[in-house]
Specification:
By secondary structure, the chain is mainly β. It has 2 helices and 19 strands.
Length: 271
Amino acid sequence: MNRPVILFMMLASAAAHAGDLPRESRVPGGIALIEIPGGQLAPTALIDTRRAAVIRHDDRWLAVVGIPLSTKPGPQKLKVATDKGTVDVSFTVVDKSYRTQHLTIKNERQVNPKPEDLKRIEVERERSDVALSKFSAIETPVFALQSPVAGVRSDSYGSRRVFNGQPRSPHSGMDIAAAKGTPIHSPASGTVVEAGNFFFNGNTLYIDHGYGLVTMYCHLDTIKVKVGDKLAAGDLLGTVGATGRVTGPHLHWGVALNRAMVDPALFLDGE
């Protein structure tokens, strides 16, 4: 049996069902579910230069596309490659207004890093980008997630942040307030692809769930897993802490899809 047929059989066997998909929200920081052309072999889809997840769903090919928070409202396109050639598939992103948060950080160095801090931050940014850019073709894609920790979830995703009166990048994850030491569990099966202490994010983990879906966990007190560990849904990852740039104990939970940091709430059942 040749390799393309094997690949098609693997992808076709990974067909998702309606309840397994994230909720669609075609806004900056949201998700687009786009029907795309394809034949017997699985098509591939690129959003900008990044590969998007493509699954077999209800006898059609569906692209599950993360929309970067920086995307301007208006027409967008996927570049889809099939066994018959390459075509563009258009979709539209609509505007969404996010609130502004004003936060006070006691450690001024976490707002205005020193030169030696900036060197460390740049190295850590590269490590983070490598982890968040993972695209692993697995047998069964995972797009339904459980909340990783019990706590009060904020609606801070996408908010424009002002630290000590100084504007900074928008918030790209969900903050879940919980007491220090509260257990954090894996929201789905996956593989730990990065772990360590980061200047802004404190003790941090990254998990590759396959098909461009990667989750991150920041400000942990303790880390209970290591790079390379294979996880099942519900496995213990670590505990809530207040490491890095924080105003108190909480979990910053980020979700990347085709490297776009999207709203984690879209993956939670019943949100």
